[in-house]
Structure prediction request, 130 residues.
Amino acid sequence: MAKKILVVDDEPNIVLSLEFLMGQAGYEVCTAENGDEALRVVAQDRPDLVLLDINLPDISGYEVCQQIRANADWRAIKILMITAKGRVVEREKGLAMGADDYITKPFSAQEVVEKVAQYLDNQGGGDTTQ
Prediction:
């Protein structure tokens, strides 16, 4: 059974490109345009991994990440933040909120596919802190 990925971004072009890339890599993909919708999808479909933008129109990606991590049933979900916020302090905040990794925009398609595979296909990826 294919691993399930949730793509959360309010930019349609980013959603389309990530949806295409993940589909081509053999993953089942669902999408959300904002944080509230993302949390509903997580509750209903329980994805294996979330590609999560920080700048969302309602609640931030940081808050979505924090809420996912606060739910014991969702702690196994991998979270990769994808954002234009590339400063070290923002990366550290994302990781402190519970993200497994952080990818900055503009991103390389190959980099995203490789990171997702690292976390899903290898069951745990590069995060050695857990």
User: Anything to note?
Assistant: The chain has one domain: 4-120. The chain is about 40% helix and 20% strand. Residues 8 and 37 are 9 Å apart (CA to CA). The domain at 4-120 is CATH 3.40.50.2300 (Rossmann fold).
